[in-house]
Amino acid sequence: MPQYPNRQFLDFELPIKELYEQIEANKKLAEKNPKVDYQTVIQQLEQTIVEKRQEITAELTPWQRVKLSRHPDRPYTLKYIDKMTTDFLELHGDRNVKDDKAMVGGFANFDGETVMFIGQQKGINTKTRQLRNFGMANPEGYRKALRLMKLAEKFNKPVVTLIDTPGAFPGLEAEERGQGEAIARNIFEMIRLKVPVICVIIGEGASGGALGIGVGDKVLMMENTWYTVISPESCSSILWRTWDKKEVAAEQLRLTSMDMKGFGLVDEIVPEPLGGAHWDYDAAAQILKSHIKQALQELKHIPPQTRVEQRIAKYEKMGHWDVLPTE
Amino acid sequence: MRKEEDIEINLTGEEAVAVSADDREPKERKWFKRLRKGITTSTADKKETPEGLWNKCPQCNYICITSELEENFYVCPKCNYHHRISSVDYFDMIFDEQQYEILFDNIVSKDFLGFTDLKPYGKRLEEIHAKTDLKDSMRVGFGTLNGAKLVVACMDFEFIGGSLGSVMGEKFSKAVDVALQHQCPYLVISKSGGARMMESAFSLMQLAKTSGKLSMLADAKLPYISLLTDPTFGGISASFGMLGDLNIAEPGALIGFAGPRVIKETIKKDLPEGFQRSEFLLEHGFLDFIIDRKTIREKLDQLFALLRG
Lengths: 327, 309
Ligand SMILES: [Zn+2]
Fold this sequence. Notes:
By secondary structure, chain A is α/β, with parallel strands linked by helices.
């Protein structure tokens, strides 16, 4: 995780920033007055930070979870791959148009087993954010993802996707090259992929852009992420006809990991370190790794055809409707 | 050229007329719909004559008698503008002797989430049910085309912008089961602004649900034809809309993933003429052909005969 003072704070994290500032002040005083004991105060402050992290996590609103999922210090796909695997070999290109930097993927050694990792990638500064197009893939990104999935299928390796996108890119060229078709094709092919597929929402799970790499045997959601059909902002602008109702929209959409698990639309919640994954990259990655390992173990022994049938059956059950008595 | 339409507004479930910047076009369309239902109203555009009611084309302003338009499959005799029509209009056009069975019409939406925007979703559904005879945004028809069995699922734009929710997903799935049972082709006619936001993630998951069913249809080697009409956006084009063994479209239909407004705001430029129209999609390789509504029966028959032969 980034160390203070480079660490960035969300509005509801500001009390923690103040505590850090107090620690810094005490450290400076300690330098000036080596005979006075500041250590006790500093330790107390550090303990208060832990408590504050706990407090904040306990009372998060849906909108605050959305903000946490977009935390500028949050770990992204390549960070998780780096921390969970060895020998990651990144593969590029869709063999048709170009290499979409918003979508990354490749084989890696996952505790002795070769796994295909695929995910959207966001940037960490102004330059890389642009390079990664803020995690918004173009059709070639989805087609690259599909190519890698097919490659994994050919060599009988499981697929793990890490989802973190504010949406598929809504651009002119994206339309020309068939953004809809690219996502549709991925959904269709993923549901019939013969190898185990595990999908994890690690940040933002926005609509078709997320589902385009999000159909699997097991779908996991990290604690402080969101996943639904539209971003709260866009939902607000369309249904409330104002951009100001994003908090209400976030509540109404029931987009948190707890909601989604409750609805049976995702299989598991992956806990995050106290206060969010950005507090401890190593711990976040280790928790995620253990969940993926567990899921892989469960899926491995199911025959491929059964796995596909179960996958189709799982999605077929999703939805709620009434059946009127026939006249 | 036609005026730009705010597709998104239809997804709110409100009448488009209430918020349109230029209310002339929606009023005409509303008037047109009323005509179809046989309700007479007096508006400035309407003229009562011994021959019947008149209709003005929103694209070329050509005025013709409604019955003439009806005989012409609701296609403007002058400029070929394809009026937006209902599911039963398509069923009447496609099935032999206008004979078909409507299936699964007792499956209706429910407000599972208790979703409230400017109005509770449940209330919205009640109001639409009271206003129209539509149960939801998709109807499934089963009948024959030139003697061969066919399942057709068709959207109704009038019902919350033809939005995709749990009911459409379920009807779509059950329609696939009928095609599998009768070993016949499946035709889906799309006309939708996208996913139904009031059903949140449940509506998103319909993309996967319907794709799973299409996978079963593909394994059974049964033809799946996707006919895209004006407009087809979002979740539909990002799932079964673009997954046809053949993707076909009516002329001039607006089809895309992201809506024109969102794209314009993203790229901060005006969109080129004809962008996201059927002809544009054909040119970029995403359609097999464009089908004139008047030839729909004959083209489909030709296609199915070739696949059988
Ligand atoms: Zn005309």
